[in-house]
Known about the structure:
This protein is 8% helix and 43% strand. By secondary structure, the chain is mainly beta.
Amino acid sequence: MAGDGESAQASAARPDxxxxxxAAQRFTLLLLTAKLVAPVGEFLCILRDLSATGLKARxxxxxxxxxxxxxxxxxxxxxxxEPVWQADGYAGFRFGDAPVDPHRLMDEDAGxxxxxxxxLRLKLPVMLWADGAARAGRLCDVSQLGAQVEADPPxxxxxxxxxxxxxxxxxxxxxxxxxxxxxGLVFHHAFRLDELAVLAARLQGDGLAAASGPIHxxxxx
Length: 221
């Protein structure tokens, strides 16, 4: 839904600067799930405010203090980001490739992949139980609804699997597809968005999900 045109970089500007920035039209998004990609990991968020020059994201945990970020949508479309501020469960970013087309960014079919649930790339050893026998495998990525794992010898299509790993809640799944040693699993019980966000943050960095107090990014103006 279009806002009232009240800001230039309104989505990304620090709260104390928003009143001085009035050029870019802002769009208020009720719910658009995305992920923030950094060299240290991938983190789920919900986009709330969006303009041609920046965005504001709802967070589920504190983000690491790094300078190199990208936004990735469910379609696979990516945009480079410059961090501006982080406080009270939100973060503001400027687009590194600004200006962007907000309408195209919000179009979840405008990307290299069909619209799909956000997948987080996690490299984690797992134990896969099938037909009463266990085999070692590796988690490659995970979404709310399923995961991709590597397993050799391969699992059978539609085979029931129990997935176990340190720090990962037990999940029962079924093999949906297979390509060589790569397998796509669909969970019997999906993760909640906030549950997966906090879990992934914890698996990617000790103490990240439970960081005490907000981190306030500072950049050169």
